[in-house]
Amino acid sequence: MKYELVMGLEVHVELATESKIFCSCGGHAAANEPNDCVCPACCGMPGMLPVTNKHAVELAVMAGTLLNCKINQYTTFDKKSYYYPDLPGAYQITQWFNPICVEGSVEVTTKSGTRTIGIKQIHMEEDAGKLVHDDWTATSLVDYNRTSVPLIEIVSKPDFRSGEEVIAYLEKLKSLFRFAKISECEEGAMRCDVNISVRPEGSDTLGVRSEIKNMSSLSSIARAIEYEAARHIDALERNTEVLVQETRRYDDVKGRTFPMRNKETAADYRYFPDPNLMPIIIDDEWIAKIREELPVPAEVKYEQYVNAGISEKDAATLTAERNLCDILDGAVELGCSHKDVAGWLLTDCAGILRRNNTTIDKLDIAPAKLSKIIDMTNSGDITRVAGKKVLTAVIEKDVDVESFISENNLTAQNNTDLIASVVQKVIDANPAAVADYKNGKTKAIQALMGGVMRELRGNGDAATVNELIIKKLSE
Amino acid sequence: MKYYISEISAKGSVAVDDNILVKGTPASCGSRMLESFVPLFNAEAVDRLINAGYEISGKTNIGEFSLDLLGETSYFGECTENGNLVSAAASLVAKGDIDAAVNTDVSGYPRRAAAVSGIDFLKPTYGTVSRYGIVAAVCSAEQIGVSAKNAKKVKELISVIAGHDSKDGTSLPADSYSYELTSASGMKVCIIKELFDKASDDVKKSVSDYADKLRSVGVTVDEVSVPEVFAIHAAWNILLCAEFCNNVSRFDGVKYGYRSENYKNIDELYVNSRTEGFGFITKASVLYGSDVLSKGRYNDCYDKALRIRRVALNKMKELFASYNAVLTPVCSQKNYQPYEICDAFEKAYDENLFTAIPSITGLPAMVTKGVQLIADSFCDATLLSLADSVEETEVM
Ligand SMILES: [Zn+2]
User: How far A209 CA lies from chain B's nearest CA (Å)?
Assistant: First the structure.
């Protein structure tokens, strides 16, 4: 018999806010040591009250917009109670009754075509801390850096039919959220629970469901789904076991899923509205303002770039990273051409970053500085070589373009009199090369060029130098 | 018999209840659980008092988390005078040791305490005094109020501690109210018959006497029927226990406060620390609260209680269309004797009948001369004016 997989996903995404969701501590990204980023509020001391981070709400609305959701204009926070040492207040603030976004959809494309995945809801919540178990001393230590870091949880409908679709969906969320700066989506910042069941193809009833909890790497999610599907099919085909509805965890080393202790899953969370947080009213005006901040989608940018003469390959590389698009658009706005900027970004900037052992997605350069370098190079104020020197200094030390050029005497020498005198000096000092040239070895001119350029410290305009040497030699 | 859990300044004129944080001074909340807990910051109300030049005399003893009648469930012992229960703060004010005290009105204890000790207490409109720095028990209702010998002194201090605070998400803008005293003459007050009928004869007499005094200063006093009071009482006890259960769940022996010495794993650490650290009234309220929030009971208990909260507010707004204030008893009896702990639990929850309306609705309430006056939101000044008008006649 042929079987069909039916899956639904719950994806937790860490929002890229400056501070935590209910206090002013920096995100855990800023932490160096355990419990670096904590205050009395996020470590559960009595007397503190939560105050909602507006930016987190805005990012959640952006995410909902990107996933075609309806935004709930009246949204509330609720308390979810359970005891665990990583939860300092013994409750998590989440959205149980009135989530911020509902009823959305997203298209995913795999080799077998494009399908629409329904989104049930997106809700905001705070993250919990982290327990560190020290087996040596048999103690557990708790790190609250991550408590109260803002998350959204995206709950899909049970619309996935293959592991490829799941991976395509997660990749799509990742690129959408990164491009809109909703989340860095770095390793561990996106965590996923998969609800999975199997049924004979063509059946419209659902099989017994298991939930695999808390996975973060795409490859292990793919392996977990593959394992779990096979386990279900085995159970149905060969009666290897009786399937029960349960929560399981995936052990990537063993390549298997294991049931979690029932105690961890049978809890009654006793949800109720949090009286400390007033309902959030998101009016049309606020929604419109948030939507204005959404970037032009990557696909649209890609078309724009190709139409502006950038190669398809380069356009794809550029639109994979929001920072590159921002720099490029900024420089174009200041008058540079798309092609010029793309070249400088993907060749020169990328090369400089590579030498600094980092990658192009980390590039941080003011479009105004880049456009100035490009303009000065194009107009011949500085040579291409000098342009690259300035670019390196800007990327590495964020120097001021003009003062760096003047401090390092990088202005191109277009003064024909000056160049002519240097040419004369070099010709006088190199009679052998001159003789070679006059005997037909035209290549000897390279040695003279080199000499002149050295004298001019690389700032001579190559065409002018070349022209003047030929002129002098033919006198 | 401990009045102060921590003494701060002998020159101090204002006492602060032990569930309101004062930086560097333990905030025990009358509980063994928090005996050793020292806060890192001041409550907003405390900061405002200090900035206005008031000195804090010390932290007054309260019943565990302020849930009980008058402090009889404090881990540090109850206070009595002439065999009757009194609260530490109200008693210090009545004796003239201090000018005033700030107390968290979680479920009416400072109102009962003021009635028993014969002083004034104002529980202001919810949202007017910042809750930042209260050891939370019932977030949707608790407010810091002021105890003092008369309405003028209450007015002086409430004016200091009230005001908008961005650290409290439920804090309201300060431009919606003021505490200007006006003449009570011409105001209209009504007595809720159902609450009046439930009081003892000597309490009834206090209410009737007060009604007469109001009439003597030109106030009209009528009687109205509000049969909803019993449903409101039940709903309040549900909300109280539910929120309380959730708020004290943070006291688990892991981070601060009392930790049992006797545990082998995390479950035992939780259970034993809480069993040994909490008193009877806390445990009973936690059990009741976790029940009303549980999956099977939420709709029948908690959700219904939230609906009754709205009914209560609507009913009161209806009354305020015709009346400036409502007059009720604040306790069933004039004095309480110390109770056995099990009885104390029940008694405290029974007595909430009289204090429930202001608690569940967030309306302001004032206790003066052993009775309770309730006004519309932000009309705290009406209450102060009524109390002051009657007090003025006695000075003369
Ligand atoms: Zn914090």
Answer: 22
